[in-house]
Design a protein that fits this description.
Blueprint (H helix, E strand, L loop, with lengths): L23 H5 L7 E6 L4 E10 L2 E8 L1 H5 L10 E8 L3 E5 L1
Antiparallel strand pairs: 1-2, 1-5, 2-3, 3-4
């Protein structure tokens, strides 16, 4: 399901964080802690992870480092697997999928 939190006409890319456009609160206002999200970046590509929190212009995601989870996103990882915290500047975000 696509989150409708996207922005237009904020900067030269057509998206981004400025006072009139999007910021972390706009992108993640309907996302709950622990929700699996796919964050699309301006430079291309995306980041998968569980939503943790927003602080100012930063969003924090958590992702377990296990092979099964990376190939099968709906499968849960074991507790022993290492978890990484990912920090993204919301100025670099184009869209968020929940």
């Amino acid at each position: 399901m696509w989150n409708n939190n996207y922005c237009r006409y904020s900067d030269s890319y057509g998206y981004g964080g400025d006072k009139k456009g999007c910021n972390c609160d706009t992108f993640f206002k309907d996302v709950s802690r622990g929700d699996e999200v796919k964050v699309f970046l301006k430079g291309g590509g995306f980041v998968l992870g569980e939503f943790v929190d927003t602080r100012g212009d930063l969003v924090f995601l958590a992702r377990a480092e296990c092979h099964d989870h990376n190939h099968h996103p709906h499968k849960r990882c074991d507790r022993k697997d290492r978890v990484k915290i990912i920090k993204i500047c919301c100025d670099d975000i184009v869209a968020v999928e929940v």
